[in-house]
Amino acid sequence: MGQLEGRTAVVTGGSTGIGLATAVRLAAEGAYVFITGRRKAALDAAVETIGASTATAVAGDITKTNDLDRLYDAVRARGRGVDVLFANAASAAFVPLEQITEEHFDQTFGANVRGTLFTVQKALPLLNDGASVILTGSTAADNGMQAFTTYAASKAAIRSFARTWSYELKDRGIRVNVVSPGGVETPGAVDIQGGDASFAAFKKQVAAKVVKGRIGRPEEVAAAVAFLASEQSSYIVGANIYVDGGLNQI
Ligand SMILES: NC(=O)c1ccc[n+]([C@@H]2O[C@H](COP(=O)([O-])OP(=O)(O)OC[C@H]3O[C@@H](n4cnc5c(N)ncnc54)[C@H](OP(=O)(O)O)[C@@H]3O)[C@@H](O)[C@H]2O)c1
What we know:
The chain is α/β, with parallel strands linked by helices. It has helices at 17-28, 40-50, 65-78, 102-123, 149-168, 187-193, 196-209, 218-229; strands at 8-12, 32-37, 55-59, 82-87, 127-136, 175-181, 240-243. Bound molecules: NADP nicotinamide-adenine-dinucleotide phosphate.
């Protein structure tokens, strides 16, 4: 029997990469999973991968509160509340300080900070007592890197959210934690690097910097999320679990 038998999970950004691997893992642990993302075709493919009997896709953009309402309306209609919320969707674009525009700032903070906040706020009436909320952070929150101004700051905000929300939700037994990946091979990461050829070079750079000597796999992040989602992590609250092959640890 899986660790999440009979539970209901919501995964934002569940159509590809870390979100999809996590949705697959949560379903394998017995959860029924709602996934969201903007592209319907990617969501449909993801439902097929997860298993149509254990997943529902609701297309939507986390920057639009009406879309979040539609997502949670679908969850509410199932009548079981939410036991696991993985607020994972984010925007990643990298621009040097002198070239940052208002649009770039609004895009990154709109998705990563505002979008994550309302993803969690709008789930509150549905979250069952004892639920687990997991937010996707990043090792980037701790480091100064070229062109990372908005992305790194937005992920630092995610880290902060988990501290405040752990406090505010404690009386309902709801735990809030962060999972912070380092470099992970996902469609999004390949896109950011500009395609397969440049991604191969990026992978070599990551391998040279990381204790494990290789880039991470989405399933390795999913394993940490499954742990945080389950009773196995019952005494872990407000924490930040790094899944970074040692990148930020030594
Ligand atoms: N991969 C890495 O190396 C790495 C490292 C550290 C942290 N992270 C974090 O891990 C998370 C997942 O990244 P990933 O690498 O798995 O990326 P990915 O492969 O690009 O997946 C991103 C997912 O989020 C969805 N999404 C993006 N913007 C959205 C929005 N505004 N509304 C709803 N859904 C949205 C995408 O679907 P649509 O495009 O169809 O909306 C997709 O399902 C992000 O929070 C990212 O910052 C990744």
